[in-house]
Amino acid sequence: MTTNAYEAEIHPKSRHIECGNCRQSLPLRMTECGERAAVWLCAECSVPFVALCIEDRLPGNANSVRLDARYFDTTGLPSISPVIHRHVLALANRKTSSVAQEKRRSTRKAQSLVVPAVCLGPGFVPEGMSFRLIVANLSCEGIGLIHNACIGSEYIALELGTGIEEPIQVIVQIVRQRRLDPPFYEIGGIFYVRMGSEATAPSSTHVPQAE
Predict the structure, then answer these.
(1) Sheet holding 28-29, edge to edge
(2) For residue 27, is the peptide bond before it cis, meaning its omega torsion is within 30 degrees of 0?
(3) Domains, the chain, ranges and CATH?
(4) What pLDDT, in 10s, does the model give residues 135-162?
(5) Do the Cβ atoms of 47 and 34 come closer than 8 Å?
(6) Which residue, among 45, 12, 15, has the nearest Cα to 27 in the 3D structure?
(7) Angle value at C-alpha 56, between 169 and 150, nearest 5 degrees
(8) Could you tell me which residues come within 8 angstroms of residue 84 by beta carbon, excluding any fewer than 6 positions away?
């Protein structure tokens, strides 16, 4: 990927960026003094922008951008052994209470995936190093995750994929964390947005269930 970005057009009234290559309006803005930025890509033409996300515009325009792949690079991190993987899945998939099941709007399907993730701060800027999470279950609205520590951010970004097709980037809002056997935590989240790819419908925030 080239490091040279096309010139962005800035609209002062809305403070958003328009891609200078494909003319698509993006839910991004330039930083102000002291703000940290992230590298975002225009989903239409992959031109990079060093910018902040306009948080209230993202839900309606998430199909137009995605985070740079560098934020999901887990090269060099230790792998999760099959023994640990099976153990934590067994912990998380114990029968839940009927009350918890009733609160879910759709049935969750058990999974056995390991995905890269990164915590997000203001402007949905990635914070800290990327890490790996175990996906325990998926539904149209939410996801169950397992990690070896409590997550301190309200939002995280994940890449969901099987390695065959382009990974799907999603932002997940964490709504619940429950301690399992130390040091593991079960983390419940809802899908906030699915980020851009050519196949993403502008109004879609659902994530297809993995097979």
Answers:
(1) 28-29, 48-53, 38-42, 65-67
(2) no
(3) 9-68 (no CATH), 72-194 (2.40.10.220)
(4) 999 988 999 999 999 999 999 999 997 6
(5) no
(6) 15
(7) 55
(8) none
